[in-house]
């Protein structure tokens, strides 16, 4: 009997970019024009700015590009936000709660459209895109319940909060932060990420603005707008999520100005394996670590493994990484099929994919050993589509110290493994980047974990399980260069964007002190 031919994948009907764009324009006509978006400042959606072309990482096709403002216009937007801040800071808490709650209802109503925009703009698989929206809405609802106790005896800042965030979590990180900051009594400003999320954030901002919450959303070059968004005297606090280079420049500026700040920066999060035998548990968790192609601030791209356990580690690791699923997030075998269950789709753009592939090839040339090299399955892509932003999982043993993959977070599906023989080597390798957001140590002995974990320079260290940013009352921060300024999560997020008693020392990593919660 002849084998049954494999169906040719098709784009799921109703999920094209044109479908998402049409629905977004219909949902918020004040924010979208026929072929571009507007900036939101001084309480209204305004034209202006030079619109740059943009493409989707999913297939290289055109999507809406950012309307970049100049520094002068951004300064006017910040001054207008200060005027709104002075009014909003006196709005009673009950009314702020009502308005933010109404905004959450609107976001929830448009959940699937916001998620679809995320798929096209930043390449998130459907499951993860919906989770990004849900975490934003559900997380802020928790703050609605608890904001009273968190703000007791505290006042809003003297000026609005300026938010500069990376593209990977537009809803669950950026929109979540904006709404909590506003709930605490501050007007809020956000710069759209350079690499993606524009249409999703524009729709979200339109829905929030309709409910009377003072949000400003503008686009522009980080270098050109930093004077307004970081150094302006009107700004009460700077909140940043991104890389260490940009974060270091912002840290210098806000420190010189004595300005409140929350700067979440990258670090090399590591997973150590020492005197460990529960290999089934490790096999089960490996695919989950590839969510969104490890384009997360809490991803684990480095395994530090006891040399005598390396054979057992590989037996657990290799089948798991081989099971990781990547492909076009909206490609289906039949039109009525559900959207595919993928661990990740494309990286944020083709340039990042080429850069990461180049780093990996250079590491191998300098001595790293390729242990696993995945491949892109044609059955998970549309015929003839552009796949230049896709990178299959890759695992390298012993990256050379001269490689960027040794010290820095790759922000892509490349794992590196370092072998060690002593506990001292284990700790040195796990602390290679001088501070991280999260870490994990897999060891059978609780006493060994209790002894070694405090020496791992990460804000959160899991015992055989991954750690993440967390939600609701879970705290979050970083050690070393991975974090500057106030820690967040739970009441700490509210305290970071409000003023308390005179002489208050917020938990955080500041130039003159480090205070853990």
Automatic annotation (TrEMBL):
Residues 49-492 form the Aldehyde dehydrogenase domain. This is Aldehyde dehydrogenase. The keyword Oxidoreductase applies. It comes from Streptomyces subrutilus. The keyword Hydrolase does not apply. One of its GO terms (molecular function) is oxidoreductase activity, acting on the aldehyde or oxo group of donors, NAD or NADP as acceptor. Keywords: Oxidoreductase.
